[in-house]
Amino acid sequence: MRRLATQQRGGAVSSARDYQTIAELGKPILFVPGKHGVPASLILRYTGQAKKCDVAAFGGYIASTVDFSVHISVTDASGKVRYADDLAIEGQKYWTRVGETWIQDCESDRWTIILRWKGESNLFVWGLSVSKLSLPDFVSRFVQDCTDGIEYLNQRHLAPESFYLQHDSPMGGATVESLENIEVMDADRPNPGKKCSQCQRSLPIDPRLEKHRVELKVARRSPQGMVLAFHGHKAKKTGYQNECRACKKFEINDFFNVRRTSDQLHESSVLTRERKLLLRENEALAEFKERVSKKGLRHYIWTLFQKRCFKCDKPVSLKDYELDHTRPLSYLWPLDRHATCLCSTCNNNKKDSFPSEFYSEQELKRLAHIIGLPVSQLKDKSINQEELKRIREDIVTFAETWTPRLFSSVAVRVMDLLPDIDLFAELQAASPDLHSRLVATLSLRPSPVLSEEDLEHLNLSEE
Q1: For residue 210, what pLDDT is reported?
Q2: DSSP code of residue 106
Q3: Helix (H) / strand (E) containing 377
Q4: pLDDT at residue 454 is higher than 50
Q5: Is residue 404 reached through a cis peptide bond, with omega within 30 degrees of 0 on the bond before it?
Q6: 453 by DSSP, 3-state: which?
Q7: Taking a C-beta distance cutoff of 8 angstroms, is the pair 183, 34 a contact?
Q8: Which domains does the chain have, with CATH numbers?
């Protein structure tokens, strides 16, 4: 894909290849509360350069050594609050990403960020910034063409990198206007980062990732809580993808999606349907309707969550809400009475994340209370052992009954979390001939992209 991107898309990859190295970005700012139990308050003032843009955003990275909550608000020069939220900071994570965009109807380029919290928590800050947006052309076109383009930029897995703010200093040139019960100092902690090969921004990474990989030895994916501005990539020199998550989305994936074949476009949905059949979800839903609620699981969960999205708390209709698996279907967790009620936006943002990767500590506790699963199980990133045992006990039937693509997907997911279990090796031991046929079929998957001639032919056919 990288080779194709360079050749066909004309990617702006730096010839110096400095995106293949990791370097310290600088010392974060550390805010230390004075008297314990007394609220700490920090007010920062930002003045931006005049830009012909009616969209503004703020974003950055915040961390702490303990779990706590900090209230963050952003106000423009007219006094209008553009962002306000109680951000849950998990002390075990290196950085928590925060950001939001909005339509800026005030001409002045001045904003105020206020952070307030209470307790003994020290607050680390890096790359906190607010400004009118200067988006790259390929992102601007997407925002203009998409009816909900601004909201799309706000998605949890893209923000704040999708705003293309500069995050190369602790507070982006802010003026400290007020400090209450706070001492300011440079943080004595590592702050490694790398450059994006496309937008050329230097953005933070997580230094724990390499240790994690060494411990698991053959881990193929990196935990979502350890990737920050870049997705992990074991084959890369740095251990991360060359592009930041925003450039990967807008300039790589979106460029090639229009060139993907119809088979590839449907591949993900086919896999989802096969997983549901494999896990006998239809049988479980029918049994639930017979034994628990005649109105069915969908109505049961909708009522259980008081007809609101659990994540954003917006009202949802029975027809339109998304019945989320809670624990990922891709890791063999079927739909059951422990499902979650989400709106379509939040469900798309969650994708196949584990609950602990998507919800805050407070949200996990509340979710556990609603659906009746212990918090420890919601925090656990694990394969469904019961289903895995069923597959391994008759792996030949599994390989013969289901498509090679599903076998491969399950095998990869299992090895993500259980590196010592190799379903391909187990199949080879049980049936070398079937293993050879399956591997041969997988090697014959369609070409990654359609050619320019194919695209022209499709366009002519449509006309």
Answers
A1: 62
A2: -
A3: helix 375-379
A4: no
A5: no
A6: helix
A7: yes
A8: 1-25+194-261 (no CATH), 28-190 (2.60.120), 263-379 (no CATH), 385-442 (no CATH)
